Amino acid sequence: MECSRLTVSAALTLDQLRVKTSVAINWRNVWRTLQEVLTDCTKDNGWLHVSSAADRVVHYTLSQILYNTYEPPSDNELEVLYDIPDRGDQIKILWLQKAAIGFYTVKLKGTLIENTDEKYAMHMLDTAYIRTTHRRQGHGLSILTDLLQGRVGQDMGLSSPISRSMWRGDFLK
Ligand SMILES: CC(C)(COP(=O)(O)OP(=O)(O)OC[C@H]1O[C@@H](n2cnc3c(N)ncnc32)[C@H](O)[C@@H]1OP(=O)(O)O)[C@@H](O)C(=O)NCCC(=O)NCCS
């Protein structure tokens, strides 16, 4: 597959076209497969901040299409659907060999808690996801190491509920 960067647009419109087993995303009047959307030849390996409209399309595809639709959360595992992040949330995507394979989002300390006048008293890990094809390779654990970088000694919270797979790994021991 040819590896190319999405054209960045200030006005972002997303449409999903579902035709039985295939899904495409229309952005700026160009239809792209999920694989094309989740590939970016400019990305180095590692957890990178979402900093452009193209990155937001990648996060949307991972969180709202792959996770919410194709790899849906399991009630037994205490996994839940994810909402679109709030404006002040920090979003990072894990890139591996030019492919987006996971994400996490953080509610930053001092930002407003939705529908209240209160503010988060500490950074909160709000959502986390690694594609099923890449699980059990330590990428989930790397969320925590990435999160804690530069924040040693600071309190850190996790949004509830915490899924069983999150508890099971070495994350919270
Ligand atoms: C939770 C989640 C992010 C973990 O991702 P992951 O990449 O599989 O996590 P890790 O690989 O670091 O650890 C998972 C397991 O693999 C094991 N593992 C890690 N590296 C491994 C390796 N190289 N070989 C074999 N096993 C390995 C870990 O010890 C852990 O084992 P355990 O579950 O038996 O304790 C992932 O399961 C997920 O996206 N779940 C759906 C959404 C969700 O639950 N999010 C969390 C909300 S709180």
UniProtKB/TrEMBL annotation:
InterPro entries per the UniProt record, alphabetical: FAM169 (IPR029625)
PANTHER family xref list: N-ACETYLTRANSFERASE, GNAT FAMILY-RELATED, PTHR22442
Protein name (Swiss-Prot/TrEMBL): N-acetyltransferase domain-containing protein
Organism whose genome encodes this protein: Timema podura
